[in-house]
C-alpha cells in the first residue's frame, strides 16, 4: 500500500483516483479578490492535497472561471456549469473546494450538483472532509450545510443593508451624486464648483417650468446648442474630480434630473428597492424598482444647497406623471383641445381621444367599447371643445394685460440667461486655448516629437474657440432684441382682444392646449341616456367648479330630448304659412339646433319637414301658363321632338336659324319657337347635316 493510500480518506477508492479531481475556486466579488488574497491562495493550494491523496498533476483540473462571481445563483457562473458538465460526462472522481459555500449559496443549484454527483458516483470534499452523495447520512449532512450556506448569505446581506441604512439615516452614507453636485472633503453634498455646470442645471428647471414636457426641454437645449455636464471617473468627490465633459441632452437624462429629489436639497436613500417577493430564497439578483415617496427608506429635507424648492420638485413630478399618455397626457399637435383632460362621468375613467380626420374627433370611454358598464359613452368632441374654449377665454380675460407684460419680462430674462451661458462657454474655450499655448510654449523646441503634438492641440483649441465665437454671434443675431415701446404696446392691445389672439393663425393648437392645461385640472362629461344632452363639470386649477350642459351631435332627430316640442313648433309655423327660411330663422332664435348640433338652415328645415310629411301644394310650372298654338314649341319640347341636345337648340336661336321669341310667364321669360311641319323637316335636315360633320 502506497503512502498516499494511507493518507487519503477511506471513501476515496482507486476507481476515484483513476479519474479527474476538480479543484473549484471562487470568490464572491472583485473587491474580495483584490483585498482577500489569502483566501484565493488557500483555494489554489487544494491541488497539493489532491497530490497527497494520490492524483497526478495531469489528473488535477483547476476551475477558476467564477472568480469575482456571487454564489447566489448559477446565472453567469461559467465555472460551475463547466464543473457540472465534467461530472455529467463521468470524468470526475472527486471535486474539491475550500468549503461547501464555494459551490453554491442557493439550495436549488446545490441539489442539482448533488444529484449529478450521486448519479455518477463523484465524491465532494470540503477541506479534509469527504462526502459521498450516495450515502444517505452524507446526503442529509450536505443538505443541512447547503441550507446553512443559503441562510448565511441572507444574514450577511441583511447585516450590510442594515449598516448602510443606519448610516443613511444620519445622512453620512456616501453614494454617487448626479450632475450638478459633488461631495466635499468633509463628506457633505455641495453644488459643483464649475459655474457653467450650475447654470445649465438651473436653466433646465427654468425651461421645464415653461414648456412642461421633457421633449420640450430637449428641443430647447438642442436649439440653443446647450449640452449636459458630465464628470468622468470622479465618483462625485471634490478631492478627485474627473475631467468635465459635455454630452447631448437625452430624454432619459433630463427625466432623471427632473425626478431626482437631490436637486430640491433632499438627501434620499431607498428610492429604488427590490420587490417584496424577491427576498430569501429568490433566484439571482432581482432588479430594483422605483417606489413611491411614502416608501423611501430615508428622506432628509433641507440637507444641502438646492437648485429648486421642495414644492417645485413635487409640482414637476406631478407634471411628469400627468404627461404620460395613460394619465392626463401632454399638449400635442392635433386640433383637439382636451386630450387627456376628459373623464367619463359614468365610471370616472380617463377618456381616450380618437381622430376621424384632422377636423373631426371623439372622446371615448374604454368601458364603452367593452360594454363593461352602463352610462359610459362615446361622443363627438367639437361641441365640448367649443364650450371649454368659451369658458377659458372668460376666465383669462381679467388677467390678459398682466400676462402680456409678464411674457415681455420673461422673454428678456431668458435672453439674459442664454447670454450668460454662452459667455461661460466662450470663457472656457479661451482658457483651454491659453493652457494649450502655455504647454506648447514651455516645451523644448528641439523636441519636435512633443512640440508638434502640443502645437496641434493648441491649434485645435483655437479652432474650437473660434467655432464657439461664431455660434455665439449667430445666436445673438437670431435672438430678438428688447421689445421697443411700440411693440410692447401692440402686445398689450392684442392681449385685450383674447378671442382674436386665440383664433389667430399664428397661435398653434399645442399652445391652446397648454393654456387649457394650465388652468383646468380635469373635465367630467356624461351623456344623458341616448339624447343630445352632455352634462359637463369643469374642475379648475384653483379648486373652483363650473357645471354646464352642451348639445352633442346625434344620429337621429328622434334622439333629441326636445324632438316632440320641435315637431310641434315646426307644424304650427308651417300651418301659419311661414316659408322654410322663416321657420329656420325662428327656430334658431329660440335656441333649437339640428341633430348635428348646428343652427338650422333652409335645407335642413326642408329635409326635416319632408320627413314629417309636411308638404306644400305643388305650383304650376311657368311653361304650363303659356297658351301655345299647335305649331309653337318650348325649347324642351322641340329638343325632345328633334332628339337633339337643348344646348344645340340654343345655338340655333342665337344664330337665328329658327324663328323664336321670348314670352313672359310667372315673372320669367321663356323662349317659344314657331315650327310647322315643313319647318320641322327643315330643322331635322339641319340636325342631320350637323351630325354628319
Automatic annotation (TrEMBL):
SUPFAM superfamilies: Resolvase-like. It comes from the Bacteria. The keyword Mitochondrion does not apply. The keyword RNA-binding does not apply. Residues 401-475 form a coiled coil. Keywords: Coiled coil. GO terms for molecular function: DNA binding; DNA strand exchange activity. Residues 20-171 form the Resolvase/invertase-type recombinase catalytic domain. Pfam families: Recombinase (PF07508), Resolvase (PF00239), Zn_ribbon_recom (PF13408). Residues 178-326 form the Recombinase domain. PANTHER family: DNA RECOMBINASE-RELATED, DNA-INVERTASE FROM LAMBDOID PROPHAGE. This is Recombinase family protein. It comes from Persicimonas caeni. The lineage of its organism: Bacteria, Deltaproteobacteria, Bradymonadales, Bradymonadaceae, Persicimonas.
Amino acid at each position: 500500500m502506497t503512502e498516499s493510500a494511507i493518507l487519503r480518506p477511506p471513501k476515496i477508492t482507486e476507481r476515484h483516483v483513476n479519474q479527474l479531481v476538480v479543484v473549484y475556486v471562487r470568490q464572491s466579488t472583485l473587491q474580495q479578490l483584490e483585498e482577500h488574497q489569502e483566501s484565493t491562495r488557500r483555494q489554489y493550494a487544494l491541488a497539493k492535497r489532491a497530490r497527497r491523496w494520490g492524483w497526478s498533476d495531469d489528473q488535477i483540473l483547476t476551475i477558476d472561471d467564477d472568480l469575482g462571481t456571487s454564489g447566489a445563483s448559477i446565472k453567469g457562473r461559467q465555472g460551475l456549469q463547466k464543473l457540472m458538465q465534467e461530472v455529467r460526462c463521468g470524468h470526475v472522481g472527486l471535486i474539491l473546494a475550500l468549503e461547501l459555500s464555494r459551490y453554491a449559496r442557493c439550495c436549488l443549484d446545490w441539489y442539482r450538483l448533488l444529484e449529478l454527483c450521486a448519479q455518477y458516483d463523484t465524491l465532494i470534499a470540503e477541506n479534509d472532509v469527504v462526502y459521498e452523495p450516495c450515502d444517505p447520512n452524507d446526503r442529509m449532512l450536505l443538505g443541512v450545510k447547503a441550507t446553512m450556506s443559503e441562510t448565511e448569505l441572507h444574514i450577511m446581506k441583511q447585516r450590510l443593508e442594515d449598516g448602510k441604512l443606519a448610516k443613511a439615516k444620519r445622512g453620512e452614507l456616501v453614494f454617487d451624486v448626479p450632475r450638478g453636485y459633488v461631495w466635499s472633503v468633509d463628506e457633505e453634498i455641495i453644488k459643483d464648483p464649475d459655474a457653467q455646470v450650475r447654470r445649465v442645471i438651473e436653466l433646465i428647471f427654468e425651461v421645464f417650468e415653461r414648456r412642461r414636457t421633457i421633449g420640450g426641454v430637449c428641443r430647447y437645449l438642442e436649439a440653443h446648442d446647450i449640452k449636459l455636464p458630465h464628470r468622468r471617473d470622479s465618483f462625485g468627490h471634490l478631492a478627485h474630480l474627473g475631467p468635465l465633459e459635455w454630452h447631448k441632452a437625452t430624454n432619459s437624462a433630463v427625466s432623471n434630473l427632473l425626478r431626482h429629489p437631490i436637486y430640491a436639497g433632499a438627501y434620499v436613500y431607498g428610492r429604488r428597492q427590490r420587490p417584496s417577493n424577491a427576498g430569501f430564497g429568490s433566484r439571482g439578483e432581482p432588479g430594483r424598482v422605483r417606489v413611491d415617496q411614502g416608501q423611501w427608506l430615508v428622506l432628509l429635507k433641507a440637507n444641502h444647497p438646492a437648485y429648486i424648492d421642495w414644492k417645485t420638485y413635487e409640482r414637476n413630478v406631478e407634471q411628469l406623471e400627468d404627461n404620460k399618455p395613460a394619465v392626463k397626457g401632454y399638449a400635442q399637435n392635433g386640433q383637439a383641445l382636451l386630450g387627456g383632460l376628459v373623464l367619463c362621468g359614468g365610471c370616472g375613467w380617463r377618456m381616450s381621444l380618437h381622430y376621424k380626420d384632422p377636423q373631426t374627433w371623439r372622446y371615448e370611454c374604454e368601458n364603452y367599447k367593452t360594454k363593461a358598464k352602463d352610462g359610459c359613452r362615446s361622443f363627438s368632441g367639437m361641441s365640448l371643445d367649443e364650450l371649454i374654449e368659451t369658458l377659458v377665454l372668460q376666465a383669462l380675460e381679467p388677467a390678459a394685460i398682466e400676462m402680456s407684460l409678464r411674457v415681455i419680462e420673461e422673454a428678456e430674462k431668458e435672453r439674459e440667461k442664454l447670454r450668460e451661458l454662452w459667455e461661460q462657454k466662450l470663457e472656457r474655450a479661451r482658457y483651454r486655448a491659453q493652457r494649450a499655448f502655455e504647454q506648447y510654449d514651455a516645451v523644448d523646441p528641439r523636441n519636435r516629437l512633443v512640440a508638434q503634438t502640443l502645437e496641434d492641440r493648441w491649434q485645435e483649441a483655437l479652432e474650437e474657440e473660434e467655432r464657439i465665437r461664431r455660434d455665439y454671434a449667430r445666436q445673438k443675431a437670431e435672438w430678438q432684441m428688447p421689445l421697443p415701446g411700440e411693440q410692447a404696446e401692440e402686445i398689450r392691445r392684442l392681449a385685450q382682444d383674447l378671442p382674436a389672439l386665440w383664433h389667430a393663425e399664428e397661435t398653434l393648437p399645442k399652445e391652446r392646449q397648454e393654456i387649457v392645461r394650465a388652468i383646468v385640472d380635469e373635465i367630467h362629461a356624461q351623456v344623458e341616456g341616448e339624447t343630445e344632452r352632455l352634462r359637463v363639470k369643469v374642475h379648475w386649477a384653483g379648486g373652483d367648479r363650473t357645471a354646464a350642459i352642451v348639445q352633442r351631435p346625434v344620429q337621429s332627430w328622434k334622439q333629441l330630448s326636445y324632438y316632440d316640442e320641435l315637431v310641434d313648433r315646426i307644424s304650427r309655423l308651417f300651418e301659419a304659412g311661414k316659408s322654410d327660411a322663416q321657420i329656420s330663422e325662428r327656430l334658431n332664435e329660440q335656441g333649437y339646433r339640428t341633430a348635428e348640433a348646428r343652427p338650422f338652415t333652409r335645407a335642413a328645415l326642408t329635409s326635416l319637414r319632408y320627413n314629417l310629411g309636411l308638404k306644400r301644394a305643388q305650383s304650376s310650372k311657368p311653361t304650363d301658363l303659356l297658351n301655345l298654338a299647335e305649331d309653337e314649341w318650348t325649347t324642351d319640347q322641340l329638343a325632345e321632338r328633334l332628339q337633339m341636345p337643348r344646348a344645340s337648340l340654343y345655338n340655333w336661336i342665337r344664330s337665328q336659324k329658327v324663328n323664336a321669341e321670348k314670352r313672359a310667364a310667372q315673372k320669367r321669360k321663356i323662349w317659344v319657337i314657331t315650327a310647322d311641319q315643313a319647318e320641322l323637316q327643315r330643322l331635322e335636315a339641319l340636325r342631320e347635316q350637323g351630325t354628319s360633320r
